[in-house]
Amino acid sequence: MDTERLSGKKALITGGAQGMGAAIAKHWAAQGAAVCVADINEEGIAKVAQEIRDAGGQATHFTLDVTDEDQAIAAVAHVVKEFGEINLLLNNAGVNKPTIFPDTPKENYDFIMNVNAWGSFNVMKQVSKQMIAQGAREGYPYKIINVGSILSREAFLDVIPYSMAKHAVLGLIKGGAKALVQHNITVNGYGPGVVATELWKQLDKDLVEIGMFEKQGQSMDSLAENMILMKRYSYPEDVQGTASFLASPESDYMTGQLIMIDGDGVISVDILHN
Fold first, then answer.
1. Residues ≥6 apart with Cβ < 8 Å to 90
2. In which element (H, E) is residue 119 found?
3. Alpha-carbon distance 252 to 123, whole Å?
């Protein structure tokens, strides 16, 4: 690993207490980035930040509800205070809760859209304002990375609000790239498929509860067998390399792009009804 690849990067990572966010925070720090690990899970982010420091990296943490404007502003201010500036954002925080349409309650829709769509918009808004205030730098673009999904371009019948929210993230990438290019800010993202994280473990339980699968553990195996061309689900380690590429100078001539990391997931109607 090139320990200087991300040297000089000062990053805010949302949803950093566990799963992909925690893995990427550690991966970026090992490549020389200074990272602020943010999440509503204060114990989790403190643990991740300490593990990074114990490994010789530079890290701080900040308790952040991405839906709260004041907290987003404060998170950005914290990064600037700790690192001198902010030049990299990973908008990773997200939630999901499957339901069967048309019986999806408004509370479910509001919860998922508020965190995944508005939360991403809110944090990106506050970070981009700070980047603009810092001033554009020729040959050194600021970088915003929004986490999409296989469902940024598809939809599942049991997670329609989540699919809608991840389509919104794609819109944020495309629209944000156009809005911020004049400030030398690039906006890209990546779209994971089925990733073995704490979020998917809970989702697996929820899918059993609503009758989509008969027993726990069946959903990921069934989706891998029937939906994913590579016939396996992924792990955070399968995603972190692409996240590092998008954070690095190697992606400086990219903006408005969503890179899929889904094993070439193809939706099968049969699996969605089993």
1. 11, 12, 13, 14, 21, 24, 145, 147, 243, 247
2. helix 119-134
3. 22
Instruction: Identify the residue whose tokens are 């992909």.
Output: 20
Residue appearing with tokens 């399968």: 238
The CATH number of the domain holding residue 116 is: 3.40.50.720
Q: What range does the domain containing 46 cover?
A: 10-193+236-265
What global pTM score does this model have? 0.94
Q: Judge whether 154 lies within some domain.
A: yes
Residue 200 lies in a domain: no
Annotated active-site residue in 142, 162, 190, 233: 162
Is 203 within a domain?
no
Buried b / exposed e along 208-246 (16+ C-beta atoms within 10 A)? beeebbeeeeebbebbbebbbeeeebbebebbbebbbbb
* Tens-place pLDDT, residues 17-59: 999 999 999 999 999 999 999 999 999 999 999 999 999 999 9
Give strand pairing partners of 12: 36, 89
**Contacts with 56 (C-beta within 8 Å, 6 or more apart), sequence order:** none
In this structure, the number of other CB atoms found within 10 A of the CB of residue 100 comes to: 12
Q: Is residue 215 part of a domain?
A: no
Would you tell me how many other CB atoms lie within 10 Å of the CB of residue 260?
Answer: 18
Active site residue 162: yes
Indicate the range of 30-34, 39-43, 231-235, 244-248 predicted with least confidence. Answer: 231-235
d(CA 195, CA 215): 19
Spatial contact of 107 and 87, defined as CB atoms under 8 Å apart: no
Cis check: omega of the bond before 141, within 30 degrees of 0: no
